[in-house]
C-alpha cells in the first residue's frame, strides 16, 4: 500500500506540532494528520474475465510474468496484439504515438469519445510517455465512459479537478502534488481512488517516469473494469455479496440491451451435480430469475440499456454458490457444454447491516415528477462506509405507509377531503437487503386543454423499522413526492466559479476577466434550455450587462470584467432576467492585489494572517490583510510549520489539505520578504 498524502482532515484533529512534523519528515509522507489510505472506489470486478483471460502465447511473456494477465486481456480486446515476430515487448517504453492508438482503441471498447480522451495530446512522436500524461489520458477515458448510471462516475470539472463518485479524491501522491499541474495531479489521485494506480512506493507516483508496455496494459485493463467493457457474449461477476451482475456484449464489446436472461445456481460443493449425464439441467439447481431453470421463459428478465442485469440471489444458508447464466430466445433450453453458458463462483457472506437508508429515483434538484412517470423508492440496508448490506440472521422488516392526495386545477395538499388512497404494509427486505416500492400517478384530468391551473397528485410515504430491524439515522416520515402536468419552468440555479481567486487589474483602464458557470434545472430536475441568466455583484467595479442564455445542457458560461485594482471579496448572484422572486444562487470570489511594500516585510512580531486561498502552480498564497492580498514564495525560501522547518512539498501539502477542509483555519506570516528581489530568502511561517 503506498503511503499517500491525505488531503482532508479536520483542523480540530491536529496533533502536537513538533512531534507531528518530525514524524512526517521522517517517513517522507504528506501533511499533518495523514492516515493510512485506501482506494475508496476500487472495484471487485474486471474487464478481464471469460474469453478475455485466454493466453495469446507471446514469446516474451512467460507464464509467471507479472503483467501476463493484463497483456493477454489487452490483446483480446484488440487494443494491441504485439509485434509481427510474436513478441509483446513488455519492458519497452510506450511512445507517444502508441499511447494515442492505445487510448483511441480503449475508448471505443469502453464506450467513450476518443476525441475527448486524446484532446490536445500530441498524436505523433516516438518520445516515451511519462506516467503523469498516461494518468491524465486514462482519467479522461473514465470521465467520458462513465455517467450518472455508472456505479462510480468520474467527472472532469471545469476547474480541472477530477471527481470520483461525486467527490474530490481524498488522497494525493506526494511527488505528483509537488510537481504536477492541478489536472494531472488530480488525475493520478483519481486513479488511486479507483484502484487503477498504485504508485511506486514511499507515497510517490513518479509522474516523470516512463511507462512500459506491460505497465500500460495493467493501467488500461484496471480502468476498463470501471466501464462497460466486458467480453463478447455473456459474463457473470459479483460486485457485492448476495448479488451478481450478468453482462451481455456483442462482437464489438458493446452492451446489448433487452436480451432475455436465464440465471440458475447450486451450492458450490454440489456444482458437479448441476447437470445430468445427458447434459440437461438437474432438479437440484435453483432458478434465480424465471420459473424454469435452463430455459428462457416469460418470467425471465432482460438486460438494461447498459447491457447488464443485477440479480439479488435468493436466500440461502450456503456460503458459496456457483451461478450460471446465458441468453437466448423464448423457449430455448441450455445444456452443459454449450458455448453460451458461463458460470462464476460467488459468495453469499454479506456486509453486516448497521443501518438503513431510503432514497428515491427523483433527479437531483427535482421537486416534481411528471404524470405517467415512475418514482422508485428504495429501502436499503447499509453497513460500514455506507456499503449495501444483506439482512441479519433474523431478517429485517419495515412498515411502509403510503398516502395519495388528489387536486384538480390546483396545488395538492394533505387534507382529509383530498385523500384518495392510503395503504400500509409490512415488507421484509430481500436477500440483498433491499425493499423497493413504486410511486406513480396518472393525470386525473388528461383533457384539460384551456385550463389555467395545473393538476397535482401528492404522494406521502413513511417507513418505520419493525422490531430489531436496523434503524434510520433520521426518521423517514411523510416524505412528499408531487406528480403534476405543469410545463417545465426554471426552478434552480447553481453558480460556480472556475478558480477561487484572480489577481486584480493592474490598471482600471484594463479590467481583469473572470468566468462563472450557471446551471439551471427545472422542477423535474432536468437541464432547462433557454433560461436567460443575469449576473450581479456587490462590487462597484463589476462590469457586465444583459444576460446569457442556457444551452441544451442547462448551463450558461458567463464572462464578466472587474476594473478594481485593489483586493476585494465580491459576492456574485445569478438570477433569471425579468423574473421577480425566481431562483437565485450566490458565490463569493476573491480579487487579490499585491500587499503594500515598504522595504523588507517582517510579520513575525506583528502576527500572522488568515489564509484565504492558494495556488501551488503559481506559488501564490492569498491572505487577509483587511482585503485579499497575494504573496509569492519559491523554492529558494525557507518554510516552517508550527515552528518546525519543513520541505516545500510538505508546506504545499498542508496548504492544500487545510484549505480543502472548511472547518480549519490556516495562518501565514513571513520575514524578510522582498518581492523585488527574486534571489531573496523569505522565511514563511504557517500556523495550523
Tell me what the structure shows.
- This protein is an alpha+beta fold and 688 residues long.
- It has nine helices and 36 strands.
- The strands form nine sheets. Strands 29, 30, 31, 32, 33, 34, 35 and 36 form an eight-stranded mixed beta sheet that branches. A five-stranded mixed beta sheet has the order 13-19-18-15-16, with no helix packed on it. Strands 21-28-27-23-25 form a five-stranded mixed beta sheet, with no helix packed on it.
- Strand 31 and strand 32 form a beta hairpin.
- Helix 2 packs across helix 8 and helix 5 runs parallel beside helix 8.
> The biggest beta sheet, please?
8 strands, mixed
**Number of separate strands:** 36
The assigned structural class equals alpha+beta
Q: Rg, please? A: 29 Å
Specify the helix fraction band. 10-25%
Feature tags:
five-stranded mixed beta sheet, 688 residues, eight-stranded mixed beta sheet, globular, alpha+beta
Topology (SSEs and partners):
Elements: E1 5-6, H1 17-27, H2 68-76, H3 96-110, H4 114-118, H5 131-145, E2 154-156, E3 162-164, E4 171-172, H6 174-179, H7 182-193, H8 213-224, E5 233-237, E6 243-249, E7 261-267, E8 286-287, E9 308-312, E10 320-327, E11 342-347, E12 355-360, E13 369-370, E14 374-382, E15 397-407, E16 419-428, E17 434-440, E18 456-466, E19 476-484, E20 490-497, E21 501-503, E22 512-522, E23 532-537, E24 542-543, E25 548-549, E26 555-562, E27 568-576, E28 584-592, E29 601-602, E30 609-615, E31 620-624, E32 628-632, E33 638-641, E34 644-646, H9 648-660, E35 667-673, E36 683-687
Parallel strand pairs: 13-19, 21-28, 33-36
Antiparallel strand pairs: 1-4, 2-3, 5-6, 6-9, 7-8, 7-10, 10-11, 12-14, 14-17, 15-16, 15-18, 18-19, 20-22, 22-26, 23-25, 23-27, 24-26, 27-28, 29-35, 30-31, 30-35, 31-32, 33-34, 35-36
Amino acid at each position: 500500500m503506498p503511503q499517500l498524502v491525505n488531503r482532508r482532515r479536520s483542523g480540530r484533529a491536529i496533533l502536537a506540532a513538533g512531534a507531528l512534523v518530525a514524524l512526517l519528515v521522517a517517513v517522507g509522507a504528506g501533511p499533518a494528520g495523514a492516515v493510512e489510505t485506501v482506494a475508496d472506489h476500487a472495484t471487485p470486478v474486471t474487464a478481464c474475465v471469460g474469453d478475455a483471460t485466454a493466453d495469446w502465447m507471446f514469446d516474451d511473456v512467460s507464464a509467471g510474468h507479472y503483467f501476463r494477465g493484463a497483456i493477454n486481456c489487452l490483446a483480446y480486446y484488440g487494443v494491441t496484439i504485439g509485434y509481427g515476430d510474436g513478441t509483446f515487448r513488455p519492458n519497452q517504453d510506450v511512445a507517444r504515438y502508441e499511447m494515442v492508438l492505445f487510448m483511441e482503441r480503449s475508448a471505443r471498447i469502453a464506450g467513450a469519445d476518443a476525441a475527448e480522451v486524446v484532446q490536445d495530446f500530441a498524436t505523433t512522436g516516438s518520445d516515451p510517455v511519462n506516467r503523469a500524461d498516461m494518468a491524465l489520458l486514462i482519467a479522461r477515458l473514465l470521465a467520458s465512459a462513465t455517467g450518472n448510471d455508472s456505479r462510480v462516475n468520474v467527472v472532469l470539472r471545469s476547474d480541472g479537478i477530477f471527481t470520483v463518485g461525486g467527490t474530490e479524491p481524498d488522497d494525493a501522491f506526494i511527488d505528483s502534488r509537488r510537481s504536477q499541474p492541478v489536472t494531472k495531479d488530480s488525475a493520478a489521485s483519481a486513479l488511486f481512488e479507483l484502484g487503477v494506480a498504485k504508485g511506486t512506493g514511499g507515497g510517490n507516483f513518479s509522474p516523470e517516469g516512463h511507462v512500459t508496455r506491460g505497465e500500460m496494459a495493467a493501467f488500461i485493463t484496471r480502468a476498463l473494469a470501471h466501464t462497460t467493457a466486458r467480453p463478447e457474449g455473456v459474463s457473470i461477476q459479483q460486485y457485492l455479496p448476495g448479488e451478481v451482475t450478468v453482462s451481455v456484449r456483442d462482437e464489438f464489446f458493446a452492451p446489448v440491451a433487452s436480451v432475455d436472461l436465464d440465471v440458475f445456481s447450486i451450492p458450490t460443493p454440489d456444482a458437479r451435480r448441476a447437470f445430468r449425464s445427458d447434459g440437461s439441467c438437474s432438479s437440484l439447481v435453483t432458478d434465480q430469475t424465471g420459473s424454469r431453470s435452463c430455459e428462457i421463459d416469460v418470467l425471465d428478465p432482460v438486460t438494461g440499456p447498459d447491457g447488464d442485469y443485477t440479480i439479488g440471489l435468493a436466500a440461502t444458508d450456503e456460503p458459496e454458490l456457483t451461478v450460471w447464466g446465458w441468453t437466448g430466445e423464448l423457449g430455448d433450453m441450455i445444456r452443459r457444454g454449450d458455448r453460451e453458458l458461463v458460470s462464476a463462483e460467488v459468495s453469499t457472506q454479506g456486509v453486516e447491516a448497521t443501518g438503513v437508508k431510503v432514497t428515491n429515483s427523483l433527479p437531483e434538484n427535482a421537486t416534481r415528477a411528471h404524470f405517467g412517470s415512475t418514482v422508485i423508492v428504495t429501502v436499503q440496508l447499509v453497513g460500514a462506509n455506507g456499503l449495501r448490506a444483506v439482512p441479519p440472521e433474523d431478517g429485517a422488516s419495515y412498515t411502509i405507509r403510503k398516502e395519495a392526495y388528489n387536486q384538480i386545477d390546483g396545488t395538492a395538499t394533505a387534507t382529509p377531503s383530498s385523500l384518495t388512497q392510503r395503504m400500509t404494509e409490512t415488507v421484509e427486505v430481500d436477500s440483498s437487503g433491499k425493499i423497493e416500492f413504486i410511486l406513480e400517478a396518472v393525470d386525473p384530468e388528461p383533457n384539460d386543454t384551456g385550463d389555467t391551473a395545473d393538476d397535482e397528485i401528492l404522494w406521502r410515504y413513511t417507513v418505520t423499522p419493525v422490531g430489531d430491524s436496523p434503524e434510520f439515522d433520521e426518521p423517514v416520515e411523510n416524505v412528499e413526492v408531487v406528480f403534476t402536468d405543469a410545463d417545465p419552468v426554471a426552478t434552480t440555479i447553481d453558480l460556480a466559479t472556475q478558480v477561487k481567486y484572480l489577481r486584480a487589474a493592474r490598471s482600471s483602464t484594463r479590467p481583469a476577466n473572470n468566468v462563472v458557470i450557471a446551471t439551471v434545472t427545472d422542477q423535474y430536475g432536468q437541464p432547462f434550455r433557454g433560461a436567460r441568466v443575469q449576473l450581479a455583484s456587490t462590487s462597484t467595479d463589476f462590469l457586465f450587462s444583459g444576460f446569457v442564455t442556457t444551452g441544451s445542457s442547462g448551463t450558461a458560461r458567463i464572462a464578466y470584467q472587474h476594473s478594481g485594482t485593489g483586493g476585494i471579496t465580491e459576492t456574485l448572484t445569478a438570477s433569471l432576467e425579468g423574473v421577480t422572486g425566481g431562483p437565485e444562487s450566490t458565490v463569493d470570489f476573491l480579487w487579490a492585489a499585491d500587499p503594500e511594500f515598504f522595504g523588507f516585510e517582517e510579520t513575525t512580531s506583528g502576527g500572522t494572517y488568515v489564509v484565504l486561498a492558494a495556488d501551488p502552480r503559481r506559488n501564490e498564497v492569498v491572505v487577509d490583510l483587511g482585503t485579499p492580498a497575494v504573496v509569492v514564495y519559491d523554492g529558494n525560501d525557507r518554510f516552517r510549520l508550527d515552528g518546525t522547518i519543513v520541505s516545500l512539498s510538505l508546506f504545499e501539502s498542508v496548504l492544500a489539505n487545510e484549505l480543502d477542509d472548511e472547518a480549519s483555519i490556516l495562518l501565514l506570516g513571513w520575514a524578510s520578504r522582498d518581492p523585488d528581489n527574486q534571489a531573496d530568502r523569505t522565511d514563511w511561517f504557517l500556523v495550523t
